[in-house]
């Protein structure tokens, strides 16, 4: 079961509703919000479709008119959250004019995204293994696109002599894992804001690559 970080449930619900507002409407929106909150609080295996429906204030049967099953519902959350994260990264990195600046922007965006949307990201990364092979592959494709963004930055930095990196795959894995791990410990309303975490992680990343 996912360990839930302490936070304000009402604020969590408002934040999650805001995430899905441009991505779903009507009953689908309510189901996705209810599912995110249920998975966050109970974990994938602990959250039944009945519990999700109750959270969404809908009948359990309504879920099956929009999603084939619980795994299909979880897949929608996983895929859309990965796509949103990638979009945030590409927009941020586009503002950089050199490898060091683009790495700073990448790390700031990736770390802060996993803090800002930790309610969604925590169960997504914790229970990713429940996806079917076909669904998992679709998520892997988005992850590869995210990896490609960082690899391009690191490779450019090496070629230009800006970064000192002996193991590019290992460096990339460490940087990405550090950002993803933020969603596991971040507490909404705590002493550290998503933006401050992003700034700290970006500064640490530049030191790590010898910039």
From TrEMBL:
| Record-level Gene Ontology MF annotations | DNA-binding transcription factor activity; transcription cis-regulatory region binding
Name residues in a coiled coil.
none
Entry annotated with the keyword Ligase: no
One Pfam family assigned to this protein is TetR_N
Q: Which UniProt keywords apply?
A: DNA-binding, Transcription, Transcription regulation
**DNA-binding region ranges:** 48-67
Q: What PROSITE patterns would the database entry show?
A: HTH_TETR_1, HTH_TETR_2
User: Which positions fall inside the HTH tetR-type domain?
Assistant: 25-85
Q: What is this protein called?
A: AcrR family transcriptional regulator
What is the organism of origin for this protein? Answer: Aeromicrobium tamlense
């Amino acid at each position: 079961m996912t360990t839930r970080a302490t936070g304000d449930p009402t604020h969590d619900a408002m934040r999650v509703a805001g995430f899905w507002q441009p991505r779903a409407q009507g009953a689908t929106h309510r189901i996705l919000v209810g599912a995110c909150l249920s998975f966050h609080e109970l974990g994938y295996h602990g959250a039944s479709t009945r519990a999700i429906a109750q959270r969404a204030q809908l009948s359990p049967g309504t879920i099956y008119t929009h999603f084939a099953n619980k795994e299909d519902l979880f897949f929608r959350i996983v895929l859309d959250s990965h796509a949103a994260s990638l979009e945030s990264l590409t927009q941020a990195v586009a503002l950089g004019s050199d490898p060091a600046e683009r790495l700073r922007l990448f790390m700031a965006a990736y770390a802060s995204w996993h803090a800002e949307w930790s309610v969604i990201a925590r169960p997504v990364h914790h229970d990713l293994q429940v996806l079917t092979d076909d669904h998992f592959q679709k998520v892997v494709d988005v992850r590869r696109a995210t990896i490609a963004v960082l690899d391009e930055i690191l490779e450019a930095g090496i070629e230009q002599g800006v970064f000192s990196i002996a193991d590019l795959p290992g460096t990339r894995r460490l940087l990405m894992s550090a950002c993803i791990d933020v969603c596991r410990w971040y507490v909404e309303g705590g002493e550290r804001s998503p933006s401050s975490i992003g700034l700290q992680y970006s500064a640490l990343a530049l030191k790590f690559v010898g910039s």
